[in-house]
TrEMBL record:
<dbReference type="Pfam" id="PF00004">
    <property type="entry name" value="AAA"/>
</dbReference>
<comment type="similarity">
    <text>Belongs to the AAA ATPase family.</text>
</comment>
<feature type="domain" description="AAA+ ATPase">
    <location>
        <begin position="134"/>
        <end position="269"/>
    </location>
</feature>
<dbReference type="InterPro" id="IPR027417">
    <property type="entry name" value="P-loop_NTPase"/>
</dbReference>
<dbReference type="InterPro" id="IPR003593">
    <property type="entry name" value="AAA+_ATPase"/>
</dbReference>
<dbReference type="InterPro" id="IPR003959">
    <property type="entry name" value="ATPase_AAA_core"/>
</dbReference>
<dbReference type="InterPro" id="IPR050221">
    <property type="entry name" value="26S_Proteasome_ATPase"/>
</dbReference>
<keyword id="KW-0067">ATP-binding</keyword>
<protein>
    <submittedName>
        <fullName>AAA family ATPase</fullName>
    </submittedName>
</protein>
<keyword id="KW-0547">Nucleotide-binding</keyword>
Length: 385
């Protein structure tokens, strides 16, 4: 919110000029959009209250209540836009409450970067007074499965702003001109209320315009995207724009300039890997909880894996333990599922036996896990001698 307080020395009164919220309320009234009016009126009341103008804020809320205005973040008030060709939704609305139970595992460095980005909203009045651009736009890039979507959820949780997630699979249309129209619909939808607009798989609509293999229509899509980003950032300084890509090398050069914060989301380090293992195995009653050497072995093996990979390995481990009706998850169980995850193609029983033995799994345990006789396990191991 942009607030200018002017002191009148003659009558000792304060004139308060609310720029951004008033502009949005006026736009909503002119466009006959009562939801936009109610949303920004509530935001105005909230910020007035924070600035010590509780009575004015209360009067605004009473007016809204007397007109039976709906709460700002009830998802039933919003009708997601649809593709005119398929009639499929091209955006989903996720309320902040949906992220309350989500646990996030970040490095200290990543958390510091995120908190610095979020601080642009928390200190917007001070930033405005200092002449700092209030627009909050964030580009996330890095390998798939490393938590870019989780970061968007985290920012939604911390800011209490709903998340508008663009559905790129529905936005990209087979009809000429429809993709640009869909992009416009998504940005218009996100502009109706304070929110976070999240564009995942961003490279699908933001590819470099100098790519000779792309059709002219897709180049026009990028031009449309750039125009919508500029309008969204300039007109909605209470909102956040987040984009994420696994292929940053494909992005148009002009795209990078639209984001005032850029964060690389890399694969997890040792501390994050161990935290992810603990998180995803916690419901499996791990029987090696206090054995640091076994944890270290797993952490070493999982280096280079994404958080999504680690989650899949852990969930497969817990599922197999439950289906086998065992009371606890063992170190050998995790090793087995890691091996299967890394060897998608059929692998010989001999290679599996050797892998487990190399990681100090007892021969009897190997026999039970691989479902072969103890003699066969010994034969496989002795054949290398």
């Amino acid at each position: 919110m942009r607030i200018l307080i002017l002191n009148d020395t003659q009558n000792d009164s304060k004139t308060i000029v609310m720029y951004t919220e008033l502009l949005k309320i006026i736009e909503g009234g002119l466009n006959k959009d009562p939801r936009k009016v109610a949303n920004y009126a509530r935001l105005l009341a909230e910020n007035l209250s924070k600035d010590g103008e509780a009575k004015t804020a209360e009067r605004i809320l009473k007016v809204l209540q007397s007109n039976q205005a709906q709460p700002v973040y009830l998802d039933q008030v919003f009708t997601p836009p649809v593709d005119q060709e398929t009639r499929l939704n091209i955006a989903d609305l996720i309320m902040p409450a949906a992220t309350d139970e989500v646990q996030f595992i970040f490095s200290d460095t990543m958390r510091s970067k995120l908190d610095a980005f979020i601080g642009r909203l928390q200190f917007r009045n001070q930033l405005h007074a200092a002449g700092v651009d209030l627009a909050a736009s964030l580009l996330l890039y890095g390998p798939p499965g490393c938590g870019k979507t989780s970061l968007a959820y985290y920012i939604s949780q911390q800011t209490k702003l709903p998340l508008v997630v663009a559905r790129l699979d529905s936005i990209v249309s087979s009809l000429l001109g429809n993709t640009s129209k869909n992009i416009r619909r998504v940005f218009e939808f996100a502009s109706r209320q304070p929110c976070i607009l999240f564009l995942d798989e961003f490279d699908a609509i933001a590819k470099a315009r100098d790519d000779q293999h792309e059709l002219g229509e897709l180049k026009r899509v990028v031009n449309s995207l750039l125009q919508n980003i500029d309008e969204f950032i300039q007109a909605n300084q209470s909102n956040i724009l987040i984009a994420a890509t696994n292929h940053q090398e494909l992005l148009d050069r002009a795209i990078w300039r639209r984001f005032n914060s850029i964060i690389e989301v890399a694969k997890p380090g040792s501390q994050e890997i161990k935290a992810l293992l603990s998180l995803y195995l916690q419901k499996g009653n791990v029987d090696f909880e206090q054995q640091s050497k076994k944890w270290d072995t797993l952490v070493d093996l999982l280096h280079g894996c994404s958080p999504a990979d680690i989650k899949a390995i852990c969930q497969n481990t817990v599922a197999q333990s439950i289906m086998s009706q065992r009371k606890a998850v063992t170190h050998a169980d995790v090793l087995l599922q890691f091996y299967h995850f890394k060897h998608h193609n059929a692998s010989s029983a001999k290679a599996l036996v050797e892998f487990l033995s190399q990681h100090d799994v007892a021969q009897k345990t190997i026999s039970d896990l691989v479902d072969i006789s103890l003699r066969q396990v010994q034969n496989y191991l002795n054949s290398n001698n």
